[in-house]
Amino acid sequence: MAAVVTGVSPRSPAARAKISAGDVLVSVNGHEINDVLDYMFYCAEDRLELVLEREGRSFSKVVYKSEYDELGLEFRSFLMDDKRSCCNNCIFCFIDQMPKGMRETLYFKDDDARLSFLQGNYVTLTNLQDKDIDRICEMRLNINVSVHTTNPELRCKMMHNRFAGEKLKYLKQIADSGLMMNCQIVCCPEINDGAELERTLDDLSALMPNIQSVAIVPVGVTKFREGLYPLRPFTKQEAGAVIDIIERKAAECLAKWETRMCFPADEFYLIAERELPSTEFYEDYPQYENGVGLLRSLYDEVMQALELCDTDIPPRSVTIATGTAAEGFHRMLAGIITRKLPQLSIRVVGIVNHFFGETITVAGLVTAGDLISQLKGLELGDQLLIPRVMLKADEPVFLDDLSVSDVERELDISVRASRNDGFEYLDAVLGIESEI
Question: What is the dihedral of CA 183, 167, 226, 390, to 10 degrees?
Fold first, then answer.
């Protein structure tokens, strides 16, 4: 396989070598180039012998550059080929539980090890062969793995993939090579919790110190499950039992390895109606992007921001809209803020998720339609505040394709989105421009 050059950066080593758009990159220093990982790895040298094709004719170029400097070639996509889609049919897959008619990109299931290295995505390993693992080990690529269970038979059942169990062998091979892994477990009640969860955590801890962290997150269950495997959300008692297992195993790992290794997602504490762990519990927040420690981090930062903020501020009234799971948490924060700054009025509204179903309680899956229908007619104050996770990463659009401006128009109020950062959160409440 080779890659077609679509552009060349001006004044780059490739431009000085007179490589042009339309040329085909075949190999670098004798190594075939199949994708972005090959390109990045083999182009790190300071002397590159490139084999290319132009209009069907092969030619070579020798390029000199500083080690690790960019060569300057551009390709059709940053992967240099198409994303690899998931070959599983997991019983808990959220994409299978989405309604029809949403934007097309939301239905794509990626399971691409290259995105694990480049963007931190989690992969199941089922797309990989022995040669792929050899390449990962050769290139020294740390990887994030969706494990779910280390019981081979149960993993095949949960992922509806007859090879899912045997691919677990790659965990040990990666660990034996000295590479580090972050792992995640989507936990489903009466399936991979209880004794199965204990087994999985025991098996992963046997790979220490090459397991950096394990996030255990509860399954999300929408109302669009007709014809799918029967799943339900965790009860309060079941969530508490999961927390107990994880915290017990975390204490064992801490005593042996000086790290807890495994961490429950914040959602488990909300479902179980338990207090969040201390800041120390989350160590350096290795599973922050998996919803582990978000609330503790936000709380700590809000407390720091309150200590530093100017108390001589004008009166202001705002509404904070969030998912129902974190409604109580934000009410608690609002109470702390207004006790110090009584000129503020903060209303917190937990938005019931009618779009996906009331069992979905997280803020990141709240839609504009639910915001509009449940806030219309309420006294919202000077501004409506929402968490940034309600929106697309790169534009102010909700999951139902309505925009922030649509919400502003329908509710006749300014909307401000803030990230999970306590200083930005307090700035939003105060109505001042954030410095972040």
Answer: 30
Across all residues in the chain, what is the average pLDDT? 93
For 425, residues 6+ apart whose C-beta sits below 8 A from its C-beta are 298, 301, 302, 305, 333, 418
In the block, residue with structure tokens 């691409």: 112
DSSP string computed for 176-239: HTT--EEEEEEE-TTTTSHHHHHHHHHHHHTTTTSEEEEEEEEPP--S--TTS----PPPHHHH
Burial of 152 (0-12, 13-18, 19+ CB in 10 A): middle
CA distances from 102 to 106, 119, 210, 399 (A): 7, 24, 39, 8
At 129 the three-state DSSP class reads coil
Residues 6+ apart with CB under 8 A from 143: 113, 116, 117, 123, 136, 174, 179, 181
- Domain final residue pick, 291, 325, 344: 291
**3-class DSSP state for residue 252?**
helix
CB 147 within 8 A of CB 184: yes
Domain assignment present for residue 88? The answer is: no
Contact, 193 vs 238, CB < 8 A? yes
- DSSP class of 282: G
CA angle 353, 356, 361 (to 5 degrees): 45
Q: Residue 320's closest CA among 292, 290, 344?
A: 344
User: Which pLDDT score is estimated for 41?
Assistant: 86
Q: Quote the DSSP letter at residue 309.
A: S
Q: What is the pTM of this model?
A: 0.88
pLDDT tens for each residue of 341-360: 999 999 999 999 999 999 99
- Is 423 part of a structural domain of the chain? yes
Same domain, 286 and 137: yes
* CA–CA distance, 222 with 214 (Å, rounded to integer): 25
Tokens of 205: 């801890």
Look at residue 118 in the predicted model and tell me its pLDDT.
Answer: 62
Whether 144 and 263 share a structural domain = yes
Average confidence (pLDDT) over 232-243 = 98
Q: Name the one residue in this structure whose structure tokens are 């000129």.
A: 343
